[in-house]
Amino acid sequence: MSPVIIGFYSLLLALLAYTYFRKDGSLTKGLNRALEQIIKLVPRMMCALIAAGFIAQLLPTELIASYLGADSGLKAILIAALTGMIIPAGPVVVFTLAAILAHAGASVQALIVFITSWSIFAAHRIIIFELPLLGQSFLKLRLASVAITPFLAGVFTIVVLFLVNRL
Amino acid sequence: MAIHMAKFAKGRCLATQKLLAEGFGLSFWLFFLFAIVSGLICYYVKGRVSFEAALVRDLSLLGSAIPRIIAAVSIAGLIWAILPTEKLTHYIGRDRGVKSLIVTMVVSILTPGGPSAAYPLLAVLGVAGADRGVLVTYITGWSMLGLQRILVWDIPFMGTEFSLIRFLVCLPLPIIAGLIARKIPMKLCLNDPANRAVKT
User: Fold this and answer.
1) ipTM
2) Given CB 3.0 to 4.6 Å as the disulfide criterion, which of A22, A72, A93, B16 pairs with A89?
3) How many domains, chain A?
């Protein structure tokens, strides 16, 4: 048993006990919600994880490493940001792709930029939720405010990795 | 009494069926097919040894990921159930400093579930009178740093170390985005969110 798992289950036990003694229905409410999420997520995630492993074996790793590897510097960050921006799909697709790229030798900063860029630009979410619920003017304001964040994430990562390696 | 119980059981059964239909819907079968096809291609192109190596690695990854996911999603669900949402929305709606952005970010990280949970809450924040900085920080924080997403996707797919680095690196970004939003001279007129937020 890894420490992560032990930590998770201790926290879960504490929360179960706490919500049980609150006696306000929060235990049932919370667990129902959790069950719903598990049934929605786990089956697709299992398939995606297995497929990612197979595809990682097939991909031309050198080619990807040359575009997104640690040596390609700022170019890698730019490519990663653009790729993340244009993927109109949920986490299943994106994290499968990120895991494949990681196996293929993409650098940590490129992967972080890719995931960050996807998380804020995900086109399907904009169309299904943001435009109908908040409207166009909010979308414009938000995009103008977050446009710089994937690049900041890339730069911060390079700094953090540099500091970690120095220690 | 018996009729009531039968009705309740039937309702429960329908809900379960609907849930299963969602979990094992079209997108599940597409991913299933995708896994099988990629496995077959791997077997024929790279040979049996590579195929088996990939399969063993994937299965051990799954074995460690599933108990973690079940715990993570349950934790997120329970936190969501006990979070004093109303009090927090009220507070966030009042304050105009950086502190409100920090509180907003913590709430956004703890918001479990997909966009169907986060966007209606965003609309409610808009109605409660939260300023543009808070709105941008909330949705940026949820999409970048949402705890459930990190526990379910980042850690199993990318590893604990990577997830930790990503979390730390992205931590200041929702607040930076919120501060930028407060400074940008752009018009903001929200879509009649009051009615819609109630509906969803």
Assistant:
1) 0.77
2) A93
3) 2
